[in-house]
Amino acid sequence: MEFAEYFPVWDHMTPQQQQAISAGLVSRSVKKGTILHSGGTDCTGLLLIKTGQLRAFILSREGREVTLYRLFDRDICLFSASCMMRSIQFDVAISAEKDTRLWIIPSDIYRPIMERSAYVANYTNEIMASRFSEVMWLMEQVMWNSMDKRVAAFLLEEASIEDANRLRVTHESIANHLGTHREVITRMLRYLQNEGMVRLSRGTVELTDRAKLEVLGGAVNI
Amino acid sequence: MEFAEYFPVWDHMTPQQQQAISAGLVSRSVKKGTILHSGGTDCTGLLLIKTGQLRAFILSREGREVTLYRLFDRDICLFSASCMMRSIQFDVAISAEKDTRLWIIPSDIYRPIMERSAYVANYTNEIMASRFSEVMWLMEQVMWNSMDKRVAAFLLEEASIEDANRLRVTHESIANHLGTHREVITRMLRYLQNEGMVRLSRGTVELTDRAKLEVLGGAVNI
What we know:
Number of domains of chain A: 2
Structural class of chain A: alpha+beta
Largest sheet of chain A: 4 strands, antiparallel
Shape of chain A: elongated
Oligomer: homodimer
């Protein structure tokens, strides 16, 4: 089964556990922009990405957003199954940033396996620790770095994900990643353009001096 | 053994596991102000508080601090044993905010038990999820709330911990909890004093109108 190759703890499960997962597994293809999970009472299950890209973010009551982290091929999304753990008391929303193929392991199938298998429980623990590390990195960015550094770091990250210097992003979407207002981003991008680091045109930002952007944003909290 | 009463998974461990913990357990009393863990390579072990109060915080390269959460009687501190999990890639410092009596379970004793026992692994998972929830709450405060709301919420939390309206805190220490500069806190406190919510004197802040503070800071992200 193809899923078994993608799921790192498969070989550490009993035949009964493997059978329970095979029977309950859902395979899905979603279009870019799909909201896969919207926090709260929603308990979708664990998501395992075959190909594509997901984005985990939080929302303020006024509708402002901030990106917590991205998930790529072979990554597992735990917070879409947050109902499994009573101590998770926060809401994370998950959307597809690219067309994505994924598997859903329903929470009521995963939970009893995790409760009985030390191996699966420790694996789940490592996933949570790894997301926690990403959120702590973001916390440090927000606490100690100014917005110009954060915009530079975001553009470098995007260029690396897309493997391109010319990015199709709106000022609005950058603001939604960084948890600020569009006007703030527009001002920052103009500053970066004046400094020769980017070139702006309708719907795109082109990185014209990556070395200079690295100096500004690359050394962020390393 | 007194420890067994305080440690919720004791009854779910095998006699061998209980014996390993008893043999390795360290009992300690520390004075207010003691740094118990300073992140990085330091791998103190799990801390279980008998009585007292600990503070988990992060530090910027310039020495600025921000409080992540507090730990009280019967709470367990996991990040002082973060070396146990390879996916934890951030540094948290731990200090005693009051004179504290605690037990230390060395990481090299806890780790093999967690690796074999699903019960202990899931318990560890719940502790991490609960700290993650506190950090997410802080993230939401930092992202969506202005500093006046955060100062009001901090004063209300302190008054509740100390069970007193008159708090012995310096502007510097409030700044270190909230990750900002002393001058910012001084300005905020003067504003709150002008509004009749607090009274300032040397080394103390007295809450004079809790209802009004609640309106400002109490409804923060609930």
